[in-house]
Design goal:
Layout (H helix, E strand, L loop, with lengths): L1 H10 L21 H16 L20 E3 L5 H8 L7 E4 L5 H17 L4 E5 L11 H12 L3 E6 L9 E6 L3 H14 L1
Parallel strand pairs: 2-3
Antiparallel strand pairs: 1-4, 3-5, 4-5
Helix pairs in contact: 4-5
GO molecular function: DNA endonuclease activity
Pfam family, one: Smr
Protein name: DNA-nicking Smr family endonuclease
């Protein structure tokens, strides 16, 4: 150890310490009042834009006791069967009972978007059978249409009786972009 120290001191013999205080110069450019106003206007307009494209018109009604099912191509048969039989753990639930169509539209859109963002893959949406509503199965019909139009939805099936039966659907959502990348990297390491 003494040899290392003496070797270091020998190497540093001619070095002189600089007497400069460490500093970082920051350029701050203040925005003009007009620029600030433009930024505020843009921020407010982005918040007020409704990105929810789910439609409430031209509805094809389903019966209160009809079985709902949908899946995109490319999903393995075993995965669909497990979803249909309620074998996946329910990670989140949305209850639409006593909601208006417009409230339900907003709730479904936000729920699906948030679930994908937080890597929630299997959810249940309780829409009710709609036997006592007028027209019959109004929310059920809307949910059936909305879920088909959301790209995040990979599949959905009417739930088993213990999870709401004809008044609910199991929904499988796509992976978040982060999970897709993580999965891709994991599979590439295997090669």
């Amino acid at each position: 150890m003494a040899d290392d120290k003496s070797l270091f001191e020998a190497e540093m013999a001619g070095v002189k310490k600089l007497n400069i205080a460490p500093r970082v110069e920051r350029k701050t450019t203040s925005l003009s009042a007009e620029q600030k106003k433009i930024r505020r206007t843009i921020a407010v307009s982005e918040d007020s834009v409704d990105s929810n494209q789910l439609m409430t018109d031209h509805l094809e009604f389903v019966e209160p006791l009809s079985y709902l099912e949908f899946h995109r191509t490319g999903i393995q048969h075993g995965v669909l069967k497990s979803l249909r039989l309620g074998k996946y753990g329910i990670e989140a639930k949305l209850d639409l009972h006593h909601r208006t169509v417009e409230q339900a539209r907003s709730d479904v859109y936000e729920f699906v978007r948030d679930c994908v963002r937080y890597d929630v893959r299997t959810v249940i949406i309780s829409h009710g059978k709609g036997e006592r509503s007028e027209p019959k199965a109004l929310l059920k019909s809307h949910v059936n249409r909305w879920l088909r139009h959301l790209d995040e939805v990979m599949a959905f099936y009417t739930a088993l009786p213990r999870h709401g039966g004809y008044g609910a659907v199991y929904v499988m959502l796509r992976k978040s972009p982060e999970k897709k990348l993580e999965n891709k990297e994991r599979h590439e390491r295997r090669r």
